[in-house]
Specification:
2 domains; globular; alpha/beta; TolA/TonB C-terminal domain; Rossmann fold; 6 helices
Length: 211
């Protein structure tokens, strides 16, 4: 069930036509126009239209930790607890993600999907520590051999970030070599906010029980 919160019926009708006769496994896909007062927890995905900004905060608060995927199209969507935000960039629709909101609802995506995000707002225990803000974060790929060995644990990386925000080099400070290598390769692709000079950032990443 995809719920559309706000907007007009025209958009809902177009979405219904798009998913008509499509299935996920053995389940058909349904689209429903919803509003304040409806039981949003009956949906698997809720798309919040930007026109409903004044009611968005209340609706999102009611869905906190509900295992419902929350998608929006508003600049304030993450501040209110949204998970995926659609943005228009050079005429193309792209998306940003919030790991904080996804983690609270125990919703997980594969690294290939996450790598497509325009921006990744990581959870507090997995973002870089330091004066520079992280703009683009490529999630580490959990190595197949590490999965077979059931390796878990934390990795700590030191990243030398250039003035333009790109990562010049990385140094492993701690963690299992297999996990550290995966994090190091990912961090090399990260992008920070530009700054007046190069900086050293400390990155901590934990491979927990969900990997």
């Amino acid at each position: 069930m995809i719920g559309v919160f706000g907007g007009n019926d025209d958009f809902v009708d177009v979405l219904k036509d798009m998913v008509a006769e499509k299935t996920i496994g053995s389940h058909s896909i349904a689209v429903k126009h919803i509003s304040m007062g409806d039981d949003l927890t009956r949906c698997h995905i809720v798309f919040f239209r930007a026109s409903e900004r004044k009611n968005m905060h209340v609706a999102l608060a009611a869905l906190d930790r509900s295992n419902v995927l929350l998608v929006g199209e508003d600049s304030a969507f993450f501040r209110d607890g949204g998970m995926i935000n659609l943005v228009l960039d050079k005429g193309k629709i792209q998306f940003e993600i919030s790991h904080d909101a996804l983690d609270r609802s125990n919703i997980h995506f594969g690294s290939k999907f996450l790598s497509l995000a325009k921006a990744d707002y990581g959870s507090s225990d997995q973002r870089a520590e330091g004066p520079r803000q992280l703009r683009v974060k490529i999630p580490p790929e959990y190595p197949a051999i590490a999965r077979q060995m059931k390796l878990k644990g934390a990795v700590q990386i030191e990243a030398l970030v250039q003035r333009d925000g790109t990562v010049k080099e990385v140094k492993v400070l701690g963690g299992h070599p297999l996990l550290a290598d995966a994090v190091a390769r990912a961090v090399k692709q990260w992008k920070y906010e530009p700054a007046a000079k190069d900086s050293t950032e400390i990155v901590k990443y934990s491979f927990g029980p969900d990997f």
